[in-house]
TrEMBL record:
Domain of life of the organism encoding this protein: Bacteria
Coiled-coil stretches noted in the UniProt entry, renumbered to this chain: none
The keyword Transmembrane is annotated on this UniProt entry: yes
The protein's name in its UniProt record: Uncharacterized protein
The keyword Transport is annotated on this UniProt entry: no
Chain positions covered by the region annotation Disordered: 270-289
Keywords: Membrane, Transmembrane, Transmembrane helix
UniProt domain EAL: residue ranges: 24-276
Included stretch of the parent chain: 484 to 772 of 772
Amino acid sequence: QAKRQGKNTWRWFDERDTEAALEQVQLDSHLRQALTRAEFQVHYQPIVRLTDAGVVGYEALLRWTSPVLGPVPPAKFIPVAEAHGLIEPLGEWVLREALALARTWRQAGETARYISVNVSALQFAREGFVAGIRSLLAAQDVPGEVLMLELTESALISDIPGSADKLRALNALGVRVALDDFGTGYSSLSYLQQLPVQVLKVDRSFVNGVKMHGPMFVQAVVTLAHSLGLIVVAEGVEEPHQTETLLSLSCDLGQGFLFGRPAPFLDPGGDARESALPPAPAALAGGSD
Ligand code: C2E
Ligand code: MG
Ligand code: MG
Ligand code: MG
């Protein structure tokens, strides 16, 4: 048996490939049903000012618990949804949920915090994306200022002029845009000047790297961002010492397990976590100048 294993090592990989393919098929069919069976949930993770941990907004993070497969992480099912034409209905569902929550906040008099929603490149590329955002805002009767959209560099750089047009149209609605996972993608920074984004989210690998590799990367990003008038969010802040380093680098906002894990908001008006939070800030990153 050992001989067979040694000789036909390729078989092992082959079987793994088959397994992966089967898993994809499974995921695909389960995912299709999930949309109609209320198996999705949106969790919200606070984004805070580093100066005083005041919550300025929340990132909406999709969660799927399949009755058959159990909890499946977004890193696993988002690519499958993209490959099978399911990302648009899914993305629209997340936006609708997030804006419905924003509406309950406004009804409770909370007007400063925003919700940041991840948008897949495929979603963004679709014609009518901006019109869709406009009508979702109108349907919940909330202003665009409640919404931030998180896009990765790869979603924007394939067509910079076209992307810039879309971003301008979103900005005109009051919707702000964040570049997500900044530093992991494209190597040139020249596109930044051409794209009307308001926020850079520094990828967690660099935030964790502050201890290991020194603060140069984050420092460079902050300097660049501030020179362009952008706000910087550090992703994946887990330890107090990271906050201190980030503050010394003039980083504006932070997000990570240190400040709060992604969690569901309870029913409108009945959120237990909300009441434990500091008062709402006046504006995005307000008071951190
Ligand atoms: P992302 O947009 O960069 O989201 C941040 C991820 O980091 C989340 O993972 C979050 O749970 C995790 N995180 C936050 N703080 C910490 C920390 O202190 N330490 C560590 N180790 N992790 C932290 P999650 O929820 O598994 O989502 C993974 C990715 O899936 C997201 O990365 C985003 O790209 C994508 N995603 C999630 N929800 C959606 C969605 O509704 N639509 C789309 N298109 N993509 C989504
Ligand atoms: Mg994100
Ligand atoms: Mg991110
Ligand atoms: Mg990330």
